[in-house]
Write a structure and sequence with these properties.
Pfam families: Arginase
CATH class: Alpha Beta
Structural class: alpha/beta
Pathway: Amine and polyamine biosynthesis; putrescine biosynthesis via agmatine pathway; putrescine from agmatine: step 1/1
Mean pLDDT: 94
Protein name: Agmatinase
CATH topology: Arginase, Chain A
Order of helices and strands: EHEEEHEHEHEHEHEHEH
Largest sheet: 8 strands, parallel
Number of strands: 10
Number of helices: 8
CATH superfamily: Ureohydrolase domain
EC number: 3.5.3.11
Number of domains: 1
Distance between the termini: 24 Å
Cofactor: Mn(2+)
């Protein structure tokens, strides 16, 4: 795929017109083929772009403006409806191209399974990488109802690829007992319920390492983000998630790529979720790209 042909429509506010001159590439992965509850996250990337027009370009948290980061919105990867394996292959190939060009990849989902091919591409370039994972769910199942390609298995697959000790999950409040046992037995880090304070403790351990960050919007309490496929009460506030993004920005880790997934706009007529996601993307761009 040529990067200048990936999309023809709205772009995220202040997107740079040139892929070649960009430092980072924003792209959508509009897939919800394996969801276990409510579909609709394939519409997330488009709506996040559309509501970004209402954002201020300046972040008072980071004292930076979007024009200070050259990022190119490559649009949505044209994934084949209902075909998980081919979609995964296309995402991996796309991210391979972004990395080969020396760019920082920032993906928008889509269900969480879309992170799996990104992790595979990242691991080829950064074999010593770690993963920071913020989510309501463990996502450590080997399969869901007999299907190994599932948004419920993304972290299990990633941990088996890069090693469980290199995966750090935060905000977890839902999962099978067996999933928590597997994590404990294999040395994977799981922080239940909270994100910011346990993240502060872990970040010094990751100083200097390449780290990929994946954020499922359902780490937020449904009061803050009702527009998602698998809502789960008891989550963190949007203020805490923003503070966590900024804590990573201030740390000594080397963020090499990231994504934000599971925004399903249809379930939130107030558009609170899409607007929150758009602001989170802004802060990820301003806080992490210069660290890539």
């Amino acid at each position: 795929m040529r990067f200048d042909e990936a999309y023809s429509g709205n772009v995220f506010i202040k997107s740079h017109p040139s892929f070649e001159e960009s430092e980072a590439v924003l792209y959508g992965m509009p897939m919800d083929w394996t969801v276990s509850f409510r579909p609709g996250s394939r519409f997330g990337p488009t709506r996040i772009r559309e509501v970004s027009i209402g954002l201020e370009e300046y972040s008072p948290y980071l004292d930076r403006e979007l024009e200070e980061v050259k990022f190119y919105d490559a649009g949505d990867i044209p994934l084949p409806f209902g075909n998980p394996q081919r979609s995964i292959d296309m995402i991996e190939k796309f991210v391979d191209g972004v990395l080969d060009a020396g760019k920082f990849p920032l993906g928008m989902g889509g269900e969480h399974l879309v992170t799996w091919p990104v992790i595979k591409a990242m691991y080829k370039k950064y074999p010593d990488m770690a993963i920071i994972h913020m989510d309501a769910h463990t996502d450590l199942r080997e399969d869901y109802e007999g299907e190994p390609l599932s948004h419920a298995s993304i972290i299990r697959k990633s941990a088996e690829l890069i090693g469980p000790k290199n995966v750090y999950s935060f905000g977890i409040r839902s999962g099978l007992k067996e999933e928590f046992q597997w994590a404990k037995e294999n040395g994977m880090h799981i922080s239940k319920f909270e994100v910011l304070e346990p993240l502060k403790e872990v970040l010094p351990q990751l100083a200097g390492r390449p780290v990929y960050v994946t954020i499922d919007i359902d780490v937020l309490d449904p009061a803050h983000a009702p527009g998602t496929g698998t809502v789960d009460c008891g989550g963190i506030t949007s203020k805490e998630l923003l503070a966590s993004i900024h804590e990573i920005a201030r740390s000594e880790i080397n963020v090499v790529g990231c994504d934000l997934v599971e925004v399903a706009p249809i379930y939130d007529p107030s558009e609170q979720t899409a607007n929150t996601a758009s602001k989170l993307i802004r802060e990820m761009l301003l806080g992490w790209v210069q660290k890539g």
